Amino acid sequence: MKSCTKYLYFNTENRIDFINITPEIERIVRESGIQEGIVLINAMHITASVFVNDAEEGLLEDFKKWLEKLAPPYTDSRYKHNLTGEDNAFSHLWRTIMGRETVIAITDGKLDLGPWEQIFYGEFDGQRKKRVLVKVIGE
Questions:
Q1: Three-state SS for 114?
Q2: Which of 39, 46, 48, 50 has its CA 20 to 30 A from that of 86?
Q3: Do 29 and 139 touch, CB atoms closer than 8 A?
């Protein structure tokens, strides 16, 4: 059994952003030399997410609107967390909804994704440096 650990770093221009990281994950898997196994992709910050879905711009906008309805992006005292001097309570809630991480199978040295599946980094409190753990495990 082999393993390979890499990190991706993001400092988004926008506070809220969705970034397709599939090409970077494919590169890391290829460079690892692992042919059969799994890759874990994990947002290492509590206001960011990693998830798998369709790479269609309209859908990404739909995610943002849906999240805004579930947990409006209030930056004032309507959220108790914001009473601590923060203004990102909604970002924590969005991360809980969208998830912390994803695990993808590796088959014949490649990501074993469905026909439309892509891997995304969801940033919900950006404009500062954050990292994503990429752990490849297998043979």
A1: coil
A2: 50
A3: no
Residue with the two structure tokens 């995304």: 120
As a whole number of angstroms, the distance between CA 104 and CA 67 comes to: 25
Per residue in 37-84, pLDDT (tens digit) is: 999 999 999 999 999 999 999 999 999 999 999 999 999 999 999 999
Residue ranges per structural domain of the chain: 2-37+49-138
Report residue 111's pLDDT band, with 50, 70 and 90 as the boundaries.
very high
Q: How far apart are CA 135 and CA 8, in angstroms?
A: 11
Those residues with Cβ within 8 angstroms of residue 22's Cβ, 6 or more apart along the chain or in another chain = 55, 111, 113, 118, 119
Query: Beta strands of 11-126 (E only): which ranges?
Result: 17-20, 37-43, 48-54, 101-107, 110-111, 117-123
34 within 8 A of 137, measured Cβ to Cβ: yes
Domain 2-37+49-138 in this protein, CATH class:
mainly beta
Task: Give the helix ranges, DSSP H, for the chain.
Answer: 22-32, 57-70, 89-98
**Which residues share a beta bridge with 138?**
2, 37
Beta strand 117-123 pairing with 48-54: antiparallel
